[in-house]
Amino acid sequence: MSALPPYSSTAQITWYYAFRVICGLIFFFLIFPIIVIAPLSFNAENFFTFTPKMLALDPEGYSLKHYRDFFTNPDWQQALWNSVRIAPVATLLATAFGTLAAIGLSQSHVPFKSTIMAVLISPMIVPLIISAAGMYFFYSRIGLQGTYWGVVLAHAALGTPFVIITVTATLVGFDRSLTRAAANLGADPVRTFFKVQMPLILPGVVSGALFAFITSFDEVVVVLFLGSASQKTLPWQMFTGLREQISPTILAVATLMVAISIVLLTVLELLRRRSERLRGMSPG
Amino acid sequence: MSSATTDAAISATPDDGVVRAADGTPLKKSLARALRREKTRSFLLIAPLLLFILISFIAPIADMLFRSVENNIVEDTIPRTVEALKEWDPDSDELPSEDVFAALHADLEIAVKQRIHTRLGSRLNYEASGMSGLFRKTGRSVRRMDEGNYREQFIEADEDWGELETWRVIRRFSAPYTAGYFLNAVDAERTSEGIELKPENERIYLTLFNRTLVMSLAITLSCLLLGFPIAYLLAHLSLRTSNMLLILVLLPFWTSLLVRTSAWKVLLQQQGVINDFLVWIGLIDDANRLVMINNQTGTIIAMTHILLPFMILPLFSVMKTISPSYVRAAKSLGANDWTAFWRVYFPQTIPGIGAGAILVFILSIGYYITPELVGGTSGIFISNRIAYHISSSLNWGLAAALGTILLALVMLLFYVYDKIVGIDNVKLG
C-alpha cells in the first residue's frame, strides 16, 4: 500500500485512489458527528441546524448563549457538581483496589487465577442494563438505592476492570529483579512498593484511573436506576434533555465534553510513550 | 545466620540423603513454605477487590437471578388459603370447599389491614388479567362480611370467585418458586393443557429478542464493512501517518456516548443538518425529507458509529502482525492483486474479524441508551423493555427473567470470545 510502483496498470492506479477516497469517507463518518456539534453549539437561534446567517459567517448568527445557559442554569450546575462529586471518589476506590489486585494477580502461583480474573473483569462484560437491574434490586434491599454511596460503589465496581487490565499490561514488562534487588538492599515490602515498583507501573495506574474516571463520568444507565433526583449527574441531565425537550444547551455541554476527551486522549498518549520508554521499548 | 550455627545444623542433620536448606529443614518443606507464603501474599492483595466486587456486583447479579424465579408473595400474603387449597383438586369441576373461603377471609382481613392485598393482586395480574381488580374490589368488601357462609359472600362481592379459573391461577402460582416469569419472557403461558406459546400477534418478547439479534447482526456487519478498509489502511501506512490517523479512530472512542448520540439525534432529524444538506443540493424535495430517526435506520446508523472503534482496533492489531512477504510471495508466484488479497491476506485476518465481530455483537445486544434515544418504537432493543419493566410497569420478576436470558446469551458469546481471543488479551487503546 505504501507507494504505487511505476509499472502499475491503470486499474491499479484507479483502485489505489478509490480506496483512499473510500477510507476518507469512512473517516469522515467517524469524525464528522463529533466535529459538527461544535459550530452548532454557537448558534444564536434555538435551532439544531445551520441558519443562513451562520452559513454566511455573519457574526450575528453566532452567540455564546447556550454556554451561558449551561453555566447559569441551576439544573445543569447541580448535575455538573454531582458528576464532579461522584466520579473522583469512584475513581479513587477503583484505582486503589484494582492496582493492588493486579499486582497480586501478576505473581506466579496464584490459585484459581483464571476464575478470579473472570469475576474481576465481569463488570465490563455484563451489559449495563443487567448490571443496573441487579444493582437496583440488591441495593434497594440493603438501603443503598438512591444514595450517594450507592452510586459511588456501583461506579467503582464498573471502573475496576479497566484498572486491572491497564496495570496488568504494564506489569507484563516489569523486571522482577528490581524488587528483589531493593529487598536485598534492605528495603521493606512497603518501601519497595512505593520507591521501586510504583514509579515504574505509574503510567499504567494513571491510564487505568483515567479509564475508571471516564467510565463513571460518562455512565448513565446505572445512575439512572440507582440514583435519586439529588444524584442527577451530567449524562443523566443530558439523557433527560434528549428524551424530553431537546434544548441546544445540550450541544454546548457536548462540545465541552469533547474538549475534555481530547485532553484525556492526549494525556493517555503521552503516558503510553513514557511507559514504553521506561520499560526500554522503542517508542512507537 | 552465623557460620557456627550453620555448621551445627549441618553436623546435627543425619545423612539420610534428603536435601536440606541451610537451617536444616528439608528443602521440599522449606520450598513449600515459601510457596505458601507467596500464595497468601498474592491472595491478600487480591482479596479486598474480590470482596468488593462480590458485594457490589456479583451479589446484585445473583439477586436478579433469584428474583426471576422467586414467588414468595402469594404464600406470604395468603398463607392459610395456600395451605387449605392443597386439598383441592384443580382438575375437578367443583369450587374449593367452604374451608378455603374461610381461610381466604381470614388472610384477606389481615392483608387489607396491612394494605398488601393490592400488591398480590398486581402480582397475579401478570398471569391472568382481571386479578388486580378482583383483589382490590374484594378488599373493600371483606371487612363487611359476616361470619359463616363465606363462599356465597365472596361470590356476591365479586362473581369471579365463583370461577374455577381464578382458583386454578391462585393454586398454580402459590409455590414459593415459579417458572412463570421465564414463560412470560419467552411469550409462553401455562394453561390447563400445559405450556404453550401465545398467539402469534401477542408474542412481544420473542419479537423483541429476534429484533435485537437481527439488528445487532446488521450493526456488526456494517461495522465490519466500514472497519476493514480503515484497519487495512492503518496497518499499511508508515508508523507516523498511521499514528496520526489512529487519533481519528480513538477520539470517537473516547468521546462520551451521550455526546455521540446527541450528535446523531441532531444530524438525523427531519429539520437536521443531513436533510438540510440533501435538500440544498437538490437530491430530495423539501416536502419529502428523509425519516432517519426514531426508527431502525437511526439505531443502526448511530450504533455503527459508536461501535466502529471496537471493530477497527482488534482488526488493526491483527493486521499489523501479518508479514507483507506472504502477499509478495503470492504475487511473485503469479497471483493477481485480488487473488493475493483474498486467498493469502484475508484468511490471516480472520482472528481479528472474529474478535472484533464478537465484541461488537456482545456490546450491541445489551445496548440501552442509544436505541432509547434514537430508536423510536420500532428500533428499540430487549434492554429497553427490561428498563420499562423496572421503572414503569414495576414487574420486577419479568424484568429479572428477561435480564437472565440476555445475560445467558452474553455469557455464551463471551465464552466463544474467550476461546478465540482469550480474556487476558483484552487491550484498551
TrEMBL record, chain A:
Where in or outside the cell it occurs: the entry states: Cell inner membrane; Cell membrane
What topology does it adopt in the membrane? Multi-pass membrane protein
Keyword annotations of the record: Cell inner membrane, Cell membrane, Membrane, Transmembrane, Transmembrane helix, Transport
Primary location group: membrane
Q: Which GO terms describe its biological process?
A: transmembrane transport
One GO CC annotation, please? plasma membrane
Question: Which Pfam families does the UniProt entry name for this protein?
Answer: BPD_transp_1
Domain spans labelled ABC transmembrane type-1: 80-268
List where the protein spans the membrane: 21-42, 86-105, 117-139, 151-174, 200-226, 246-271
InterPro entries, per the entry: MetI-like, MetI-like_sf
Q: Which family, according to UniProt?
A: Belongs to the binding-protein-dependent transport system permease family.
What name goes with this protein? ABC transporter permease
Q: Source species, please?
A: Oricola cellulosilytica
UniProtKB/TrEMBL annotation, chain B:
One GO cellular component term noted in the UniProt record for this chain: plasma membrane
**Principal subcellular localisation of the protein:** membrane
How does the protein's chain sit in the membrane according to the entry?
A: Multi-pass membrane protein
One Gene Ontology BP term is: transmembrane transport
Membrane-crossing ranges are: 43-62, 213-235, 242-259, 300-319, 340-369, 396-417
- PROSITE patterns found in the cross-reference section: ABC_TM1 (PS50928)
Domain called ABC transmembrane type-1: residue spans: 209-417
What does the UniProt keyword field contain?
A: Cell membrane, Membrane, Transmembrane, Transmembrane helix, Transport
Source organism's superkingdom?
Answer: Bacteria
The family database entries (SUPFAM superfamilies) matched by this protein are listed as:
MetI-like (SSF161098)
Pfam families documented for this protein: BPD_transp_1
Q: Which PANTHER family match?
A: ABC TRANSPORTER PERMEASE PROTEIN, INNER MEMBRANE ABC TRANSPORTER PERMEASE PROTEIN YDCU-RELATED-RELATED
- Family that this chain belongs to: Belongs to the binding-protein-dependent transport system permease family. CysTW subfamily.
Protein name per UniProt: ABC transporter permease
Q: Which species?
A: Oricola cellulosilytica
